[in-house]
């Protein structure tokens, strides 16, 4: 491959990376604060999480850095709830956005909103050490205690 061709290929690759992944207007991500979406072909440990008013069960978990977790999330409450995996800082910022736009849609791989009796799964790889959280950003729910703590060792 000559030099000009190599440069052209590099430019195309950069352009593809810069292209937005979706039409998500409110909070597009290029990276995630709590790790990265999991790979279904790799092994994972399952953790079941129940959501109700106004708590998660369990409300704290511990994982190893690099570990992949399959969260099986159930809403056993009577209201809509969310499970958004991020740093506290990011969730607080996101909560402010939600107050302005309470019906904001979430289609990010690090979070989900569930109606009562619904369940779903999130596959997540914790690539960074530190303390993270899952919380519900339906207005006021986080303030009432819908926070779970994730310690990545
Ligand atoms: Cu909630």
In words, what does this structure look like?
- The chain is of the alpha+beta class.
- The protein has one domain: Immunoglobulin-like (Sandwich).
- 19% of the residues lie in helices and 35% in strands.
- The chain has 2 helices and 10 strands; from the N terminus they run αββββββαββββ.
- It has a 5-stranded mixed beta sheet with strand order 1-8-5-2-3, with no helix packed on it.
- A hairpin with a 2-residue loop joins strand 2 (45-52) and strand 3 (55-57).
- Mean pLDDT is 85; it is low at 10-26.
- The protein binds copper (II) ion.
- Copper (II) ion is lined by residues 81-82, 136, 138, 141, 146.
CATH architecture: Sandwich
Number of helices: 2
Secondary structure category = alpha+beta
Oligomerization category of the chains in this entry: single chain
Overall shape: it is globular
The CATH topology turns out to be Immunoglobulin-like
Structural Rg: 18 Å
The CATH H-level superfamily is Cupredoxins -  blue copper proteins
- Largest sheet descriptor: 5 strands, mixed
> In angstroms, what separates the terminal alpha carbons?
45 Å
List the bound ligands. Answer: copper (II) ion
Order of helices and strands: HEEEEEEHEEEE
Provide the CATH top-level class: Mainly Beta
Q: Low-confidence stretches at least 5 residues in length (pLDDT < 50)?
A: 10-26
How many structural units, i.e. domains?
1
The neighbouring-strand order within the major sheet is: 1-8-5-2-3
Q: Tally of extended strands?
A: 10
Q: Helicity level, as a percent range? A: 10-25%
Give the DSSP E fraction (strand runs of 2 or more residues).
Answer: 35-45%
């Amino acid at each position: 491959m000559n030099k000009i061709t190599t440069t052209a290929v590099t430019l195309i690759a950069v352009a593809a990376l810069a292209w937005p992944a979706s039409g998500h207007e409110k909070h597009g991500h290029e990276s995630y604060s709590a790790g990265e979406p999991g790979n279904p072909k790799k092994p994972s440990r399952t953790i079941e999480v129940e959501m109700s008013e106004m708590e998660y069960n369990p409300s704290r978990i511990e994982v190893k850095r690099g570990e992949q977790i399959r969260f099986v999330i159930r809403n056993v409450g009577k209201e809509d709830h969310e499970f958004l995996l991020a740093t506290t800082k990011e969730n607080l910022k996101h909560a402010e956005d939600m107050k302005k736009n309470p019906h904001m849609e979430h289609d990010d791989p690090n979070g989900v909103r569930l109606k009562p009796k619904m369940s779903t799964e999130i596959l997540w790889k914790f690539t960074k050490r530190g303390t993270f959280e899952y919380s519900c950003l339906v207005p006021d729910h986080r303030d009432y205690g819908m926070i779970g703590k994730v310690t990545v060792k």
